[in-house]
């Protein structure tokens, strides 16, 4: 009996215990990576505006922050509209934070395989730390904007890299990643609001949050249990000669259902499973196959961010006990709670009908658009329920899209497919920001 047989026959089940421990560490590691990756992106939407407002006003007044919001305390600037309008739509801040991410997701999948994962993580951590430092010590508008751009670059590159990284681990880590990214919205909104309202300045608050990039380093380099052949500091081109060993290590981390799928794929003709990096034509072929996933994901995010950045600021109930700014803050917070809940649901329920989720989100957007125009909603409580439901739909679309891409894509194409598909949500967000401008202008001119 060789060593492998003796281990498998061990009644103590030490191998099973070690495997469960490794899976728990990897799930936790991806949860923290998701949290840290999206944290700076979320916080910059609030913190940059706080400092920009202070710079523009020429004083040191600290405003209560909201996620992706502008300050409503001044009320209607022109008093000529039936709506309590801001002079500029909140879509401005959204576009500043999403366009760099979109550019990275559109281009990076075609060349990022040449940069090893270890270097990618170090770059993302550096960009996130630089964003906190730039915005906290900002003395000019351009410095604050540059800080927002750095946060966007870190988040965009991190998302496509960590989604691609999941193919080296058990598929359950996708649930950890999705839950962590959802948690970033809740944690970012509550933590930044709590610290500033407790009396800390935005500058001190952002300096405290430098712990988040440090946590990303710890999660990646110390918490994850990598396969021995994982190309940490080598590019995929250099690693191509070790493809067989890498495949064996990936299979060791799969669950039983994953192994069955792998065995079926191993029966395919050898020429269909050529090793080495994908060619440009192969990548384009993979992209064509991703359209059925990317389109519904993009539509979901277009509808929900059109709601968040084009409509929610106009849904103000003057007779409600919360002010306009407080109502908008709770809209955004409940949305993030819904996203967090549904992005954490992959272990319990899986939804394959992605177009159904997209249709339901579009119905939400149309209903709220009509309600803004005719102002027939009786109370903010109904809007609270709708935005919570909106967040549930958006989070479910995100995690289920990437779960089924991972499940249905061939081994050799999976890493590229996971990275390339990440453009779907960013494209939808960017288009929603552009659409929100004329909508905001139209309603505020009434």
Characteristics:
Growth Hormone, Chain: A, mainly alpha, Battenin_disease_Cln3_subgr, 0% strand, globular, Battenin, 446 residues, 17 helices
Offer a quick outline of the entry:
The chain is mostly helical and 446 residues long. 71% of the residues lie in helices and 0% in strands. Helix 2 runs antiparallel to helix 5, helix 3 packs antiparallel against helix 17 and helix 13 (324-343) runs parallel beside helix 15.
Describe the structure.
- The protein is mainly α and 446 residues long.
- The protein has one domain (20-255, 276-444): Up-down Bundle (Growth Hormone, Chain: A).
- 71% of the residues lie in helices and 0% in strands.
- It has 17 helices and no strands.
- The chain has helices spanning 3-8, 14-57, 91-107, 117-136, 141-165, 173-197, 202-208, 211-223, 236-239, 243-252, 256-266, 280-311, 324-343, 354-374, 380-408, 411-421, 423-444.
- The protein is globular, with a radius of gyration of 23 Å.
- The N and C termini lie far apart (83 Å).
- Mean pLDDT is 80; it is low at 1-9, 59-79, 241-247 and 264-274.
- Keywords: Endosome, Glycoprotein, Lipoprotein, Lysosome, Membrane, Methylation, Phosphoprotein, Prenylation, Transmembrane, Transmembrane helix, Transport.
- It comes from Myripristis murdjan (pinecone soldierfish).
